[in-house]
Amino acid sequence: MRSKNSMLMALLFLISFQVFSQTEAQIKYDKERFENRANELKEQLVSDIIKGLKVGEFEEHIVSLSIHSYFEEVTKIYMFDLPAFEKQDLITQFEIKHFNDLNTILDQEQIDYIINQLRGDWKKDQKKKKRKKKKKNK
Questions:
Q1: How many Å apart are CA 44 and CA 52, to the nearest integer?
Q2: pTM of the entire structure?
Q3: Number of domains observed in the structure of the chain
């Protein structure tokens, strides 16, 4: 009876160890896939913002670097162990300081455009434009 129990325990241990290693590999694969997808979305967002600004090549490069550093800093802020409202306040303060450096290259409207794109406020602007177009067509 004791040998059956020990054999059963050994078998369960081996099965659980195999399942755990497969799960760990799956987690690693999912994490890499998620990171790749996030990087693709970031690059697409940066290119869309730059296309919308309609600036020169030098300004495009500077804006691109600025947006990439923005993503890095925002990621660091989200890693802090703070309540959500404090994180949001930190991000708002950071946006104001971070994009003020672009005042020498870009207009304030362009900087506001970048910030709105990064926040996701562009959806509101698109809805307003659609409404205006409908009214003009009538």
A1: 12
A2: 0.64
A3: 1
